[in-house]
Each structure stands twice: as structure tokens, then as C-alpha cells.
Specification:
By secondary structure, the protein is α+β, with helices and mostly antiparallel strands. The chain contains 18 helices and ten strands. The protein has helices at about 10-15, 15-25, 45-55, 75-85, 95-110, 115-125, 135-140, 145-155, 160-170, 175-205, 210-220, 225-240, 240-255, 260-265, 270-280, 315-320, 350-370, 410-420, and strands at about 30-35, 40-45, 60, 135, 290-295, 295-300, 300-305, 310, 375, 395-400. The strands form three sheets. The protein has a five-stranded mixed β-sheet with strand order 1-2-8-5-3. Strand 1 (about 30-35) and strand 2 form a beta hairpin. Helix 6 (about 115-125) packs antiparallel against helix 8 (about 145-155) and helix 10 crosses helix 12 (about 225-240).
């Protein structure tokens, strides 16, 4: 029998290796129910995950009629517009859109942005406790940094960043169907805003990735106006949300593992190696989008039928003992590191380079600026959002006073109230 797991529970997010090991005992591909998706197969090994992701002919993101897997008939048109992006497209449309954004990314030279990203991280680290001590590392740092970087990369007005932060917070609240309905208004506002920014770029030009996308469009790139909106939405949302939780999850692991923090602090030239392990161990993106099985097929000895749905569990691939020695241990010196956090195949993450640079700059700036940074609560009092598929710390109270220092004079509840008011 396959264990019935609650993929949004505190127990699952606090200790994924334990739950994943129980799942893997049932096989490399197991049948379960997933929130908002329903009955679905999920992969539990590296090889099964790779097999599904690399076979984009058998495992497709669209139904026979072209609808996106996971969309429902009752969803508004603007939601469908946003969802109609290259992450939900099969060939040849995926390559058509990917080539357009690849060209725009090449023109922006992501690696050349590292000094600017480092400067943003340094500024934000310096302001971490500007509104009080303790501070919520998620809201005051991990969320703002990726949003600042991607909005600057896109060429969006700096004055609009509070809007992005508010929208990002609303998107993070997605846990069930009811919360999805609450998000509809935010989606509508965000789509309208991005459409306006694209039109401004068409009329007046500008700097940033949006202007580059408009230029590629003018040079003959095959993309519709709706696809352009969904492309920018994807870059803004995907380019910030997952990196937010990579940064906060990595910082949490360092805060509760002083030896690892000391090792990294002795030589920040090691941070690139450490980020690869954080990508594997933290695994912010736990699952892929659902895919449809287009023909009867066996995956690692498990028979799937045409019409079934399957989701790859990236977190399980990252914890596979057949691929990683002691996978449930955080080893910042791990070599080689064959994590699957950016996926594989045609949908390999476009922003992998940017995410790596942001995480490395964020961690170094944070711990260099605040060498005595500590958790303001016990690790047992750190909680995760009940959002399926994303491992996201809800709030990470930190203090500048000293490593391991806890504000014992104040209750956890009072700390949370003060942080909420400050944010």
C-alpha cells in the first residue's frame, strides 16, 4: 500500500527525507492524491524523474485538445492567459517561445549582473534590522532581493516594487481551492499591469529585458501579445518566488548548523559549492507540473496507462540514495552533486544561472554583514507554508545579538506579532 501523505503538512516540510523514504519503499512511481490536482502518479527516484522529464513526447503538459493540465473550465480567461506560458507548453511551441527569451537573456548577459546583485544584497543586508530587532528574514530580505533583481532585470519601475511584494505574498498564500479564489483579483491586477508595461515599452522603448523582448518581437520573433504578457509574468513570478525560499531555507540551515556556517565563513569562495547542496537539500520546488501520459508505458517497471497523470517529485530525486551518498545529510562539500532542482530535458530552468548567483550573493552578504546573526526563536518554532509543491518557510525571525541567542523575555507569539506589524 502506498502511504497516504499530506504534502502540505508541517511534518512533511520539516523532515522531507523521512516521508520520501517511506514513499520510495512503495516503488519508483507511486499512485497518490495531490492537493488541487487529484489522483496522480508521482516519481520517487532520480531515474524515474529523469525518464519522465526527458520524454516530452510521451509525457506532455497539454491534453489532446490543447488545454493546460491543471486548468479548470471555470477559471477566468486572464488566468488562462497567464498559465499559457512556455512552462506549460509542449513542442514545437515550447522551443518557439524559449528561443525568444533565450535571445533576450543572452543580450542581458546574466553573469555580468553579479556585481549589481551583490550590491543589492549588501544594501538589503545592511537594512535588515532597520525596522527593529528581531526581523523576519523572509519578508525583510529573502523576498525582497529576488524581486529587486528580477524587476531591475526586466526594466520595471523601482517605485512599483511594493506592488510586486504584495502580489508575491498573495501568491505564497495559495494552499487550496479557496485560497485560489482569493488570488484571482491579484492575478487580474498583475496581468493588467504587465500589459501596460509592455505597451509602454513598445511605444517609448526602454532598458531591461522587457525592452529586449519587444526588440526580438520586432525582429520577427513569433509571439502573440497574450504570450508576451504570460512570458513576463512567468519571469517575474518564477524569477523571484522559488529563489526567495532557496535563500531563506539555506539561511535557516546555516543558522541551525554552526559548524557548517563556520566552514563557509572561513572561505566564501566555497559558496558556489554550498549553493548546489542547498539546492539539493532544501529543494524549494518539490514537484513538477502534472503531465499527461500519451501512451501506455513502463517507467522503472511500473505500468502507466494512456490518459494517466504523472508529476515528478524533484525532492525525491534529490534524496535518492542510489544517486547521493547519505542523501538525508547536508554536506556542503558534496561532489559530485547531481541534484534535479532545476529539472532536466527541454524544460530545464531558464533562470538557473540567475538563481545560483542570487543565492550565493545573498548568503555571503547576510553573514558577512551580521557575523553573530542568530535565530530569534527555537528551530522547532519555525514553520512552513501549507503550499503544495513548494517548500517555503513562512517566517524566519532572526536577531543580530548573537548566534543561538533567543529572545527569551518575549514569547514566540509576541515576536510574531511584532514582525507582522513591522512588515
Amino acid at each position: 500500500m502506498t502511504p497516504r501523505l499530506d504534502f502540505t503538512s508541517e511534518a512533511f516540510f520539516r523532515d522531507p527525507p523521512k516521508a520520501i523514504a517511506a514513499l520510495r519503499m512503495s516503488g519508483p512511481v507511486v499512485a497518490t492524491r495531490f492537493p488541487l490536482v487529484g489522483d496522480v502518479w508521482i516519481t520517487t527516484t532520480h531515474d524515474a524523474t529523469a525518464a519522465v522529464l526527458k520524454d516530452s513526447t510521451t509525457f506532455t503538459l497539454r491534453k489532446d485538445d490543447g488545454d493546460v493540465a491543471g486548468l479548470r473550465w471555470w477559471m477566468p480567461r486572464y488566468v488562462r492567459t497567464i498559465a499559457n506560458n512556455m512552462l506549460t507548453m509542449d513542442e514545437p511551441d515550447h522551443t518557439r517561445l524559449r528561443s525568444i527569451v533565450d535571445e533576450a537573456f543572452r543580450r542581458r548577459a546574466i553573469v555580468a549582473m553579479e556585481p549589481r546583485i551583490r550590491a543589492i544584497a549588501d544594501d538589503l543586508a545592511g537594512e535588515l534590522f532597520a525596522k527593529g530587532n528581531p526581523a523576519d528574514l523572509v519578508q525583510r530580505y529573502a523576498r525582497i532581493l529576488p524581486l529587486a533583481v528580477i524587476s531591475e532585470l526586466l526594466g520595471l519601475p523601482r517605485a512599483d516594487r511594493p506592488k510586486f511584494i504584495a502580489w508575491a505574498n498573495e501568491m505564497s498564500s495559495l494552499t487550496n481551492v479557496l485560497s485560489f479564489f482569493r488570488l484571482l483579483w491579484a492575478f487580474r491586477k498583475m496581468r493588467a499591469y504587465l500589459a501596460r508595461q509592455l505597451q509602454i515599452a513598445r511605444e517609448r522603448g526602454g532598458e531591461g529585458l522587457i525592452a529586449e523582448l519587444i526588440q526580438v518581437e520586432r525582429e520577427g520573433g513569433e509571439i502573440t501579445p497574450d504570450e508576451m504578457v504570460s512570458m513576463v509574468f512567468l519571469l517575474l513570478a518564477a524569477g523571484s518566488e522559488t529563489t526567495t525560499h532557496l535563500i531563506s531555507g539555506s539561511a535557516y540551515e546555516l543558522l541551525r548548523n554552526p559548524d557548517l556556517r563556520d566552514w563557509l565563513g572561513q572561505d566564501w569562495g566555497r559558496v558556489g559549492l554550498a549553493v548546489e547542496e542547498f539546492l539539493r537539500f532544501v529543494s524549494p520546488v518539490q514537484f513538477s507540473k502534472p503531465r499527461y501520459v500519451r501512451r501506455d508505458i513502463e517507467v522503472e517497471g511500473v505500468r502507466l496507462k494512456k490518459g494517466d497523470r504523472v508529476m515528478v517529485m524533484l525532492a525525491a530525486a534529490n534524496m535518492d540514495p542510489a544517486m547521493h551518498d547519505r542523501p538525508d545529510s547536508l554536506d556542503l562539500e558534496r561532489k559530485p552533486n547531481r541534484h534535479m532542482s532545476f529539472g532536466t530535458g527541454i524544460h530545464f530552468c531558464l533562470g538557473h544561472q540567475l538563481a545560483r548567483i542570487e543565492a550565493a550573493c545573498a548568503l555571503e552578504a547576510l553573514f558577512v554583514r551580521w557575523p553573530k546573526l542568530g535565530l530569534a526563536v527555537d528551530p522547532a518554532d519555525v514553520h512552513w507554508r501549507r503550499r503544495p509543491g513548494l517548500r517555503a518557510i513562512a517566517m524566519l525571525p532572526v536577531t543580530a545579538e548573537g548566534r543561538g541567542t533567543r529572545a527569551t523575555a518575549r514569547s514566540e507569539a509576541s515576536i510574531v506579532r511584532s514582525l507582522t506589524a513591522a512588515s
